[in-house]
Give the backbone structure.
Amino acid sequence: MATQTTPDRTAAARLQDYATERGSFRIDVPETFNAVVDIVETWAAEAPDDLAVLSLGSSGEETGRQTAGDLAREARRFGRALLDLGVGKGDRVFVMLPRVAEWYTAVLGAIRIGAIPMPGPNLLTTKDIAYRLTESGAVAAITDLSGAAKIDAIDAPVPALRTRIVTGDAAGTTSPWLSLDALMAQGSGADPALPSAPTHRDDPMLVYFTSGTVSHPKMVTHAQEYGLAHVPTARFWHDLRPGDRHWAVTDPGWAKAAFATLFGQMHERATIVQVQLGKPDADTILGIITRHGVTSFCAPPTLYRTLVQADLGAHDLSALRHCTSAGEPLNPEVIKVWARGTGGLTVYDGYGQTETSVTIANYRAVEVRPGSMGLPMPGWDVEVLDDAGARAPDGEVGNIAIREDGEHRPVGLFRGYDGNPEATAERFRDGWYFTGDKAARDPDGYLWFEGRDDDVITSSAYRIGPFEVESALVEHPAVMEAAVVGKPDPERTEIVTAFVILAAGHEPTDALAKELQDHTKTLTAPYKYPREIHFVTELPKTVSGKIRRTELRDLLRERG
């Protein structure tokens, strides 16, 4: 486990604890390895009655419980059903389900036999699904009635797709779909015989698609060892202990679901809480934390921004001891307000990609510097490099890169984009994986996020990261959310341009725009202030919730 510290320890001592963990931590994956066999079934054999997954409805009502024994048994039964349908090792299986117990049955059952689940977010359109099915060559699809209707609406041939499985009543579909419930019922007798060692550590386990912020989503395959890659995430970042109740607000189709709701948490034997939320409502979320004794809470920055506007003191959050955030950097002001309203709880920011596990984070064991990404995760060698591949000096913005050569290669780093050697070659260079993100490093090794490669703004020879400007804007009480991009300008190359969603009770006016500009100048270097501010009611985002700044730049070009 991560070294536990007491509040009176000095920052230097806590940093030394972290350095010790970081230097000594290793993940040893045996040659023969299957994440379901070696994590889930081991848990089930040792503590079958431990609550593994608690499923809740939109208002917090309980809709399902799965113990460790249930997960292992359901995975074996569904794995057997897939084999009987002709779906086997190496076959890709598209899974698009909401936050329900059946998601675990489907994903774990496929992994158990060496098939490769390909989770998809529930917001995918028919066009999105067709693209993923075609690119991946998926032979099976598992979804609910809403997803089945989208797949049935695909108007182009998907020749590889031969098996369709739906939760609920298959009679409600318009083409041949099999009922997941019926398949499970057929295997409800004796525990089905399955291979005890179905996969090698390097065999493929999961396929995800990137967010596609600047291009079509790219396909990323992770190996079986990826199941253990999230152990440090759960242990060091989420600080989980056996019996914790951990709720990560994420669509099960995002890679963040693997970070926060799959094998790492199971390895640490915490209960995973999943909630079938509709539109996020602060009082509902805080009420669920109270009602179900959530001890660990992980949510995207946009949700924390909503929560801090609620009356936090009206809810008993005494069970909650650890909070984390990921997706995009969390603004320092939100961290401060959350701490004031929750009796001192810190939000620990974390950073990872579809291509990795969590690679940089803030931890209980070390000092948190608000606004910083934190320090590299134990087991990951992370650097800031200049464009030539040399180590960038402290304080200078460079490329976030991960050492991947030989013994330095971390467990959980993907090996390349499927079918896209050009994109792979762009990211892997001279023993390093270039993430495509920019950051600066301070003298103590903390990293400070600047933005994506394409997001950094060049204005009058200055390089300006959008995140710093966005952070300044959202510290103003009138601002709910902000996105900053560069707009082409003949004199300055680009000018800083902001798109702002206002908080309730505020109206867009020229006076408010001027006030926001002046406010930004007081919190950042004056040259970074947004010279244009556009008030909007929504921001374009990917299905994983990341702002599509490329669309905002396109919009500015269209307007001229």
